[in-house]
Amino acid sequence: MFTSGCAPTVSELAESDPESIIARKSELLKGDNVPIETVQSVVNAHNNLGNRSLKQGDYSAAEAQFKSALGLDIKSKQAKFGLSIITGHRFYKQGSKSNLWDALEQYGRASYYSPENGEPYYWMGRTYEKKDEGDFELIIEAYEKALKGTLSKTLKKDTEQRLGDVKKRKNIYKDFWK
Predict the structure, then answer these.
(1) Which of 2, 118, 163, 176 holds its CA 20 to 30 A away from the CA of 43?
(2) Would you list the DSSP string of the chain?
(3) Distance from C-alpha of 178 to C-alpha of 71, rounded to nearest angstrom
(4) Rounded distance, CA 34 to CA 37, Å?
(5) What percent helix, strand, coil does the chain show, rounded to 5?
(6) C-alpha dist (Å) from residue 22 to 19, 37, 116
(7) Residue 4: per-residue pLDDT
């Protein structure tokens, strides 16, 4: 087992070196009275690896990590968020109208599991644009909600750009039909 003192705790390692936690998962979870903190640290390690894989676009690896997290904690919102984003991306990429509606549903689930995160709303905006670029109100609403949430600098910049472009198109369309 991990010891305390100068060495990092299991929960600290779940953040800084999740691979080491997963490598020792069997040892950490061995026995009948495993502390909940230890189980949660293993769940966090799986989620951290899943998030890393998701950012790298490796959906299969991310999905495996999130499913492992859910195997230990069926209530893990972080894992459910990740799986919803992955499923939404897969539907989005397929691109048919039916799949785009399914993508919107998955991104909606993701926003439920992590309401402060703006990423699901960003993807809702992208999905509405792909489905019907003239559906200005829904696109604008999604991008505005995305900007109210937490976004990476890159995603925030892209969201602002897309929102500006949609508003310009809306005004051009509106002016055209006057």
Answers:
(1) 118
(2) ----SSSPPHHHHHHH-HHHHHHTHHHHT-SS---HHHHHHHHHHHHHHHHHHHHTT-HHHHHHHHHHHHHH-TT-HHHHHHHHHHHHHHHHHH--HHHHHHHHHHHHHHHHH-TTBSHHHHHHHHHHHHH-TT-HHHHHHHHHHHHHSB--HHHHHHHHHHHHHHHHHHHHHHHHT-
(3) 58
(4) 8
(5) 75, 0, 20
(6) 5, 15, 28
(7) 47
Rounded-to-integer distance, Cα 77 and Cα 129, Å: 28
Domains of the chain listed by start with CATH number: 1-75 (1.25.40), 98-178 (1.25.40.10)
Residues of the chain with pLDDT under 50: 1-4
Task: Give the C-alpha separation, 162 to 126, whole Å.
Answer: 9
**Measured between alpha carbons, how far is 167 from 178 in angstroms, rounded to an integer?**
17
> What per-residue confidence (pLDDT) applies to 9?
84
Return the amino acid letter for 75.
K
> Is residue 86 classed exposed, middle or buried when 0-12, 13-18 and 19+ CB atoms within 10 A define those classes?
buried
